[in-house]
Write the structure tokens for this entry.
Amino acid sequence: MEGTTATIGITDHAQHELGDIVYVDLPKIGASAESGKTFGSVESVKAVSDIYAPVSGEIVGTNETLASAPEKLNSDPHGDAWLIKVRMTTPDEIKNLMTASEYQEYVGAES
């Protein structure tokens, strides 16, 4: 988060579960994101998976690097391989998201 702009991506756990990522479909700048709704997809050698927006707002940035190098999602999902930037219309939605430790506990329980 920077002010009311959220940088959104996938987790290391998600990229590991997907396997080798070969294609990323992202929305256009100016499109709307709605919390809980899909905004794009990630294709791996295993499957195509929808990506869901954690917050609502206007998409103000997309990671164009992923168009030619989608595999970056496998090597740096929490860094340079972010997906979109959203100017949030309802910043309080952040309160509904898990913290990093809550997420780790959640995915640990799945194993």
